[in-house]
Every structure is written in structure tokens, then in C-alpha cells.
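Listing S7. Sequence submitted for prediction.
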Amino acid sequence: MALRALHDLPAPAKLNRFLHVVGRRDDGYHLLQSVFVLIDWADRLHFERREDGRLARHDLSAALPADDLCLRAARALQAASGCTLGADIHIDKQVPWGAGMGGGSSDAATTLLALNRLWGLGWTRTSLCELGLELGADVPFFVAGRSAFVQGIGEQLTPMRVPAAQYAVVKPPQGIATRDIFEHPLLARDTGTVIVTGSFDVTGFTGWPAEWAAEFGQNDLQPAAEDRCPEVAQAASWLKTRYGNSRMTGSGSAVFATVTESSGSAGSPLATFPVEALPPGWVGRMCRGLDEHPLRGWASD
């Protein structure tokens, strides 16, 4: 019997444990190296099958742009598969905008995984990742659904297992345009590449290199971001005062601190986040790192 609806599906955010700009291609795209980790701060999506082929989005919280990545992902899968079905897509937006946490890309990935099942397409994860790359460089990471060492413009993914951790994440209300950061004169574009040898196995990484501890590397975008948006520096200082470390994630204004390396597993309680101490207009919460995307099993390799 055909599925009619899929409800309460997560679209988890991500953090960049580090982000290095190691070069620039002739077409202007910057070459990156990073480690992406999934966290349990997530949007929630609901899908209802339509027989008329129409695709419609319904915003349950914050209003999204008229043509967001979810609708673009749905159209792309519909066109590539030749499917004549449609869907009503309901989004409860929880991950903050302009945070550098990949919220829009994650929504697109959950849309691809959900509609692949709702429409009975049977596409593999590899095929969904290839389609996702046409939508944005971060989308394949969320479809693949595991922490990863990321290279290129974000499309080269090597799965890896990151130690369990908790992360205090804060975002000031101000946002930053990604273009402003990448065009900023303070942006370093020549950080040395990370060379990984030995136990780093592209077929399935089983450990975290000792030299990649919590404070390894930096986010090369942070100096430019702090110049454009002083609140990023304020957020970094706020977290460092409380947890002893802080770092901007991605190209947005969110900043995180690694709270613990030894706990954060599914059975351990989360540390308490000092919500009452946040400056007015800021949002924040304590997050747990995820071993894999909750919907990873929805597509075969």
C-alpha cells in the first residue's frame, strides 16, 4: 500500500569543527578543508502525498522565501525521476537563519530522502547526493548522513567518526552575507592543507586523529566575519568565558563551544545551557553531536 504521509522528520544542523580555506579555483570558488558534524538542533518537516503533481510548501513557524531549497529539491527530484506525484511540505523552522549551520541545505536533504520514500522511487543515496550537489555544496553531506572530512568546494566527503561531544551554540540576531566574507581582504586563502595518512581510510574512518583535538585549526572566515559583524566576536568571547573555547561555524554568525569530549552520548544528560544569561535577541542551546542522520537508513548505498 502506497504511503500517504510522513510526519515529524528531522533536518539536523551541522557544525564545522574547523574550516580552512586552502586555495581558490579559476572560476572563483574557494577550496576548503573542514570537518562537519551533525547536531540535534533540527528543523521538523512533514510531507503529504499529492496525486495532482503539485508541490506546495506550508510554513509552520518562520516564513521562508517563496522559492526555498526544499521546493527546489522537490522539483529537482520530480524532474529527474519523471515522477508525476506531488507533495505538501510543512516546515517547522527551528535552526536559526544565517547561522552557518546548514539549515536550508539540511531541509533540502530531508526533502530528498522523504520524497524518495513517499513517492516510492527507490533511488540510492549516491544518486540523491549527486542530485543534491546541483542544489548546494552542503546538501550531499546531509544526504550522506555522517560526520565527514570535507574538501573541494564542499562536495568531497570522507566519512569519519568524531568523538561524542556536547556543544553550546549561540547566534546573535545579526547575519552576515557569505559573499561579504569571501570577498573580505582579511580572508586568508592559503592555509596549509591537512594531509591525513595511516588509519584514515576513505572506506570508513574509525577514529579521530590525535592532532585533530578540539582546538585544532581555526575557522579562516572568522576574522572577516568579526570585522563585518562585531557580534560574532562578542558571541565568541561570551562562550570562551564560560567554556574555555569558542569558534565560529561555517560562514554565518553562529558560534559554538565544545563543552565536553567524554560525554554527550545518547544515554548521558545534556549540560545546562545558561539561557537566562544570553543578551537580548540572541538564541542558543546545548546540542549533542549525532553519530549519523536519523534518516540515513532511508536510502541504500
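Caption to Listing S7: primary sequence and predicted C-alpha cells for the chain studied. The CA atoms of residues 226 and 232 lie 5 Å apart. The radius of gyration is 19 Å.
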